[in-house]
Design brief:
alpha/beta, Rossmann fold, 6-stranded mixed beta sheet, about 20% strand
Amino acid sequence: MFQIKNVTLTHKKDLRTILDGFSLVLNDGDRAVMIGEEGNGKSTLMKWIYDPELVEDYIEYSGEKVIIGERLGYLPQELPEQEKGKTICEYFMEASGFLDKTPKEMSKLANDFHVETEFYYREQTMQTLSGGEIVKAQMMRILIDDPTILLLDEPSNDIDIETLELMEKLINSWDHAVLFISHDETLIENTANRVIHFEQIRRKTMCRHTVANIPYRQYVEERLNNFNKQEQMAITDRKEKEIREAKYRRLLQKVEHAQGAVSRQDPSVGKNLKDKMHTVKAMGKRFERLDEQMTEMPEQEEAIFFKLGDKDSSIPSGKWVLEYESSELKTSDGCRVLAKDLELKIRGSEKIAIVGTNGCGKTTLLSKIAEDLIARPDLKAQYMPQNYEVLLDLNETPVDYLDSSGEKEERTRIRTYLGALKYTADEMDHPIRELSGGQKAKVLLLKLSMSGANVLILDEPTRNFSPLSGPVIRKMLKEFPGTVISVSHDRKYLDEVCDKIYRLTETGLHPVED
């Protein structure tokens, strides 16, 4: 049994309520996705469900959860700090069911996740794994303990397309309940049969949630249709109100004028006009009641507004942006060769993506390309790494991080930009470490925008953006007048943005045919 009753979550720092009176029952076969803009409390709620102690430092909460006879398996959005220094072997040994599994069961699990059986016993530390390998290890350890309910926070982050398809199969075939957060629209469309939508409206002064027991695409279409229908009804009601008010004003002025002109020597006319005034005022009361019944103008949380690049960011079609050649690609510690005979040439404002299995070296290759291009005096290249903390100072506020001059005008401009990205005034002054993954990504994208870059090197650029913001980000990158070199497993991003896709293997980079 899994039930949540009347849960309210409030930030301790700015006293902003991010969830109010939320209730949910999960049954076997439910595949419920939580969606909403970055910072709307999805991850906070999931942490609270799993263990309230995970949020008690920054959240006040009330409500009740009833979990009887269930075993929860929780995948956090990021590997906890205390796990990073453990060896892979130590990490798996902490699973309570690790020693109870047969070699055959362990081998099958490893094979399902496209890793070798010896992966369980490596002395390599968890923090040295690629992002996708970390997600695989976390999911494998969860499944070793035979949970009944899966709580998955961004299970699609950083994993390769083959593992994404495995994740879809796992969610769809799960006998019990799955509650997950994802920004991967394809994954959501292919799996979710319930949608839980969290919104912050009226400049984030009011929270709202919707629970719909329908697939995601149907929810999006019905939501849009209902919004448009309510909007048209509200517009019609307001036009009718204007007509009523004009009619009422005309009648009221006519009777008032007649009353002012009537002679005191004609009491019968005066009484008649008094009766007419009574009728007119009764009409006004009736109109007021009709006004109270008017259809409300619908409210919804809008997707972010963002523009990247301008005419100065364009690159001539004949200019060689990259002519990269390397006989071999090694791991960052130099101990292992990942690929040989690499060659990548990019000219003009091409949009390039690199795909490949987890651990094949995509991030390593992209960082080397970034190092070369950032040093080029004829280009203005900017790099967005997979691990945001490489560039972000977590103790700074977003405004301080983006401010390069300290001038009042620039800080005002930065606050305006952050507002367009749905930051509240309080969030602009929060330390970056308190922001969600998507909010951190927005800070980096804004940094790219303000830099005037004409070459963007992006490692998983869409990984932390909501399904509402995802289309905006893809459109922004597609229309960027400069060059984009990226690593991504986002299937919609690959389809909609990229001109060319290359697969990284042990034998080099190979074009992916349509």
